[in-house]
């Protein structure tokens, strides 16, 4: 059943709850909504209460303009306060939202970040030169071209056949604004040192075995955190939540079970 909650600025956020046990609140990444997380929910809900939501501007959640990344953090905090205590699982763009939310809310007992930091080869001090073109496509409402942007013909064909195609189209128009917010955030603080050095809760940094460079970036981020562990997901890339849900569920479940008992 779909539930709804209202964020600080009045935006209605849709969320879903499954399972029982310690609360894990999933903060999904850019380019979609909560739906691809169903395989992980199935794998994890026997051990945890798993809560997913559609980030603002996509799926069944509403949107309020002007957009700001801070409003997204407020959405995460609002849900965490309702669910407290909660462990956040932030994927990709959702990873830095989860860390930012933990910085300002005592309702968050721990954070799991799955490849939620920039690729080490990206220069985050400058905005991508192609971003204005993507933003123009969003203004024109050209959803498919946003999803296909920069991809090879083979990848585009694969995307069209994917179970995620309609979901990706649904979230396409908000992708450019998220890229701008993501680039601005990491460009100002490349490894999060200025913001998260005093974050005093356990943090697990996950990366897929297929993305070895992400492991190097995880080491840099872990060095800025007071209580961080790093774990590689064997055989996985960036989408273990539906390509290897049992692997991701095992890592998440083990981490959550190892947390101190939460205060009532």
Q: Could you characterize the architecture of this molecule?
A:
This protein has 264 residues and is α/β, with parallel strands linked by helices. It has a single domain (3-121, 189-257), classed as Alpha/Beta hydrolase fold, catalytic domain (Rossmann fold, 3-Layer(aba) Sandwich). Helix content is 42%, strand content 18%. The protein contains 12 helices and 8 strands. The chain has helices at residues 38-44, 69-83, 93-104, 131-139, 143-148, 153-161, 165-171, 175-188, 193-196, 212-222, 240-243, 245-257; strands spanning 3-6, 12-19, 23-27, 49-53, 86-91, 108-114, 203-208, 228-233. The chain has an 8-stranded mixed beta sheet with strand order 1-2-4-3-5-6-7-8, with helices on both faces. A hairpin with a 5-residue loop joins strand 1 and strand 2. Helix 4 (131-139) packs antiparallel against helix 8 (175-188). The longest helix is centred in the first third of the chain and has 15 residues, at 69-83. The protein is globular, with a radius of gyration of 17 Å. It starts with a strand and ends in a 7-residue tail after the last helix. The model has no long low-confidence stretch (mean pLDDT 93).
If you consult CATH, what is the topology?
A: Rossmann fold
Q: Rg from C-alpha positions?
A: 17 Å
In oligomeric terms, what are we looking at? single chain
End-to-end gap: 26 Å
SSE order, as H and E?
Answer: EEEHEHEHEHHHHHHEHEHH
> What's the arrangement of strands in the largest beta sheet?
1-2-4-3-5-6-7-8
What's the overall average pLDDT, rounded?
Answer: 93
The count of domains is 1
């Amino acid at each position: 059943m779909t539930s709804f909650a209202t964020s600080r600025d009045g935006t209605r956020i849709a969320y879903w709850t499954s399972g029982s046990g310690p609360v894990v609140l999933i903060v999904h990444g850019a380019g979609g909504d909560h739906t691809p997380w169903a395989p992980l929910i199935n794998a994890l809900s026997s051990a945890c209460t798993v809560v997913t939501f559609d980030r603002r501007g996509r799926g069944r959640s509403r949107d309020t303009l002007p957009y700001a990344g801070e409003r997204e953090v407020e959405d995460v905090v609002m849900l965490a306060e309702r669910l407290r205590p909660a462990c956040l699982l932030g994927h990709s763009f959702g990873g830095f939202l989860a860390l930012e939310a933990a910085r300002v809310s005592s309702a968050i007992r721990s954070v799991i970040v799955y490849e939620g930091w920039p690729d080490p080869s990206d220069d985050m001090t400058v905005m991508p030169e192609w971003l204005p073109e993507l933003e123009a496509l969003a203004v024109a409402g050209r959803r498919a071209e946003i999803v296909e942007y920069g991809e090879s013909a083979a990848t585009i064909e694969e995307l069209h056949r994917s179970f995620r195609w309609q979901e990706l189209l649904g979230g396409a128009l908000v992708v450019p604004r998220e890229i701008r917010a993501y680039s601005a955030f990491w460009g100002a603080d490349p490894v999060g040192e200025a913001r998260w050095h005093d974050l005093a809760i356990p943090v697990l940094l996950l990366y897929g075995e297929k993305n070895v460079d992400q492991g190097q970036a995880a080491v840099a981020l872990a060095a800025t955190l007071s209580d961080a562990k790093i774990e590689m997901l064997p055989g996985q890339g960036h989408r273990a939540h539906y390509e290897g849900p049992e692997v991701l569920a095992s890592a998440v479940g083990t981490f959550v079970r190892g947390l101190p008992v939460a205060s009532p």
